[in-house]
Write a structure and sequence with these properties.
It is built from 14 helices and 18 strands.
């Protein structure tokens, strides 16, 4: 097997002595992956994945180890990152009744940066076209190499016009194709403006892992080793990498999922187990899923290493902020399930770090364990660009935490998932220091505001986890703590946040041109 050599060390070491903040408006690159759960880099404690370039970036930046996505399903999470607010407020989701309007777009971070002198670019999966802008999203950025919907691992094999930009590339595989787009952007960027580039990688989403070597039916997609595909023989990442490791799949794989969430609350046969995540319900295919999943993360690591080397070659490293996040995590056999859209840490926590070349050397490589929301990423981008964060946005800039400043920060974080497809329930809850409380209600497709008013309504199911004693969230303590002051407090806090967001939504509708789909 060829050696996988990190290329970042020299690049980052060159700025290792820098102790002054960037004085001019910096360039900003926001790297965003699809379905990547927390702790999936070597430096984050994963036992065998190889990610030397990401590891170097994290070691030269600041990691936020308790980062939760605002909406743990792909498109709503993207709208929330763009707008800096929960789905409950902006109203746009797979199963909501609303679309994103031009008026709302004007208050997104790309639009605000563009209006304030930034050259803006977008590469990859846009993920907002389900709600609006289908066919004209390219007009929202100065540079566009994006696509609607999902691609496949070999996008050249598709005839869909949504992937037309990728047909410009010489490589056949999705991630190196996006590497070509990164180089194209850097070649064509405005030389007299700072830039903000949003990069929405397709990997390691199931559409990518399944299409490495698809079977004749969805259930077969992960039953055959992907490297039986002749196109992958001899490839550095997608042939033999991780295939000689005794990978330990989750102990609950292919066990009864209803031990964790009752069938009356979430019926797995309505899509999770029978149409979309079939491979996570069988021991053979779930192991293959793990192999392909981490192969794709290592393949991505190579492209990010190339990006940082290109920035260094162009003299941009000391002027460029790199922020990393994901749209949500993913169940891969845990709790006997596959998929996302739930509030377990595996689905709602994401890897997050910020590389700031102006950060003092003594602060690099630090890990911050404060409760962070993906909405804070939006505020951080605007803060770096010198733009005041609009009052409607809910997040807080991460920069004070990065600098080690003694500031007041949140002690609790409200969580929600309003996706009701595949029989998913409405979920909302709260994360405090060591506790997580979740309540679920029967979902409504194409919901409206009144469907999210849970006041006086008994939950259909509740969960309570002590994350210190039970970090894997396997022991639901709800019955044990019934009647306790702790549980009552968590219920009240959750209800308070929920009702506050509902009121904020009403105010938001008065201020913006909200439209139904």
């Amino acid at each position: 097997m060829k050696r996988y050599i990190p290329i970042l060390f020299g690049c980052l070491a060159a700025i290792g002595g820098c102790t002054e903040e960037i004085t001019q408006k910096p360039n900003i690159i926001f790297l965003f992956t699809d379905d990547q759960r927390d702790n999936t880099f070597g430096i984050m404690g994963h036992p065998w994945v190889k990610t030397p370039n990401f590891d170097d970036l994290v070691n030269s930046g600041v990691r936020f180890s308790n980062t939760y996505i605002a909406e743990p399903v792909c498109s709503p999470s993207r709208v929330s990152l763009l707008t800096g607010m929960h789905e409950r407020i902006h109203g746009v989701g797979f199963t909501s009744s609303y679309k994103l309007t031009e008026d709302q777009w004007e208050q997104t971070y790309p639009a605000l940066l563009r209006k304030n002198g930034y050259h803006t670019g977008f590469i990859g999966k846009f993920g907002v076209e389900y709600y609006t802008f289908r066919g004209n999203a390219s007009e929202k950025f100065d540079y566009w190499w994006g696509h609607d919907g999902w691609t496949k691992f070999f996008p050249h094999e598709e005839d869909s016009p949504s992937t037309t930009p990728y047909h410009k590339a010489t490589n056949e595989i999705i991630t190196p194709i996006m590497g070509e787009a990164l180089e194209d952007f850097l070649d064509k960027r405005s030389m007299d403006k700072p830039f903000c580039l949003s990069v929405s990688f397709n990997v390691p989403h199931g559409s990518q892992t399944r299409s490495m070597y698809p079977g004749n039916a969805e259930a077969e997609d992960m039953m055959i080793p992907a490297n039986e595909n002749p196109k992958l023989i001899g490839h550095l990442f997608y042939d033999k990498l991780y295939r000689d490791i005794d990978i330990e799949i989750p102990a609950e794989t292919a066990t009864d999922p209803y031990l964790h969430i009752p069938k009356k609350v979430l019926d797995q046969s309505q899509g999770r187990a029978t149409r979309t995540y079939t491979y996570d319900y069988h021991p053979v295919s779930v192991k293959e899923h793990h192999i392909r999943y981490y192969q794709q993360i290592s393949g991505l690591d190579k492209i990010v290493g190339d990006l940082v080397a290109s920035l260094e070659k162009r003299g941009l490293t000391s002027k460029t902020i790199i922020i990393f996040g994901s749209d949500h995590g993913l169940l891969m056999g845990e709790y006997g399930m596959g998929g996302k859209a739930l509030l377990y840490d595996i689905t709602s926590k994401i890897p997050c770090f910020v590389f700031d070349p102006g950060l003092k050397a003594s602060l690099r490589g630090c890990t911050v364990d404060k409760l962070v929301s993906s909405l804070d990423i939006t505020a951080t981008i605007l803060d770096y660009a010198g733009i005041e964060v609009p009052s409607e946005m809910e997040g807080m800039s991460l920069r004070p935490l990065m600098k080690g400043e003694d500031i007041i920060w949140r002690e609790e974080l409200f969580l929600e998932s309003l996706y009701t497809g595949r029989d998913n329930p409405f979920c909302e809850g709260i994360r405090t220091g060591e506790w997580k409380y979740i309540r679920m209600y029967d979902g409504v497709g194409r919901y409206v505001e009144s469907d999210l008013d849970f006041s006086g309504r008994k939950p259909d199911f509740e969960q309570l986890f002590n994350l210190e004693d039970d970090p894997e969230e396997l022991i639901n303590l709800i019955e044990e703590y019934e009647g306790s002051t702790l549980l009552e407090e968590l219920r009240n806090k959750t209800a308070g946040h929920s009702e506050e967001l509902n009121l904020t939504r009403e105010e938001y509708k008065q201020a913006h041109a909200v439209e139904s789909r």
